[in-house]
Amino acid sequence: MAAVHDTGPQLDRRFAWRGRQIAWTSIGSGPPVVMCHGTPWSSWLWAPYARALAAEFTVHLWDMPGYGASSKAPEHDVDLGTQGQAFAALLEHWDLEAPHVIAHDYGGAVSLRAHLLHGRRFASLCLVDVVALRPWGSPFFTLVAEHADTFSRLPAPVHLGALEAYVAGASHRGLSPAQSAALLAPWRDPVGQAAFYRQIAQADERFTAEIEPHLGQIDVPTHIVWGEQDTWIPPDRAARLAAAVAGSTVTLVPDAGHLIQLDAPVALATELHRWLVRVTSGTP
């Protein structure tokens, strides 16, 4: 099974939560699968994979509040604690008792918080280049946190230059113009610019510090996938995470950076399909 990036299924539904509008959709039929994106991404990264899996699974896509097609009101917090609560509420709204969860980047911490701190049950977990263990972030995060208001008021060309360079650094193979445009789109206008720096400013390692002591409590099948050339979250985290989650398995994907969905689409699609078939069929 291969994935080719295109516009994918549109998020045509909305869930109202604490004044926010969370955009989502579901496609296909079969066992439920939920795909969680990270930062500064959106469900666009997962859309082709969802389409490919829809022949065998019911796949749910969503954009976190403050991201993608979801609302970006400046008064709403977008930290990992808030996102974990939002995901737990969304799962309840969908009436999904124990879905299979696939998470990337921040989506890892969001999913783990929903599971470990908010009591949402999962059938399995697939963690792809996730934020889960300290340290994470970058000097850029620290700089933005100290001057978020200033960054939100940068002239548009300066903001777009910084944004493009930042996003490009997540790919090992390099982004095509179309891929770059899709990833930058939610953050280009004034509302998106402010939202982009707001989510970075609210990044805080305390939200992963809170879940690290509980990782050993995970008792569902867990698979960890990592790009070998991930410079945003180095692949040593995969081994550390596997050591913390008893019985978990690890696959390292060569020639892939943090944007593994774009760097190695065939390898990742094959890995995800193999994993889901295994956990839904009960194969050891």
TrEMBL record:
Q: Which SUPFAM superfamilies match?
A: alpha/beta-Hydrolases
Instruction: Tell me the Pfam families matching this sequence.
Output: Abhydrolase_1
Tree of life domain:
Bacteria
AB hydrolase-1 domain residues: 31-265
Its name, as the record gives it, is Pimeloyl-ACP methyl ester carboxylesterase
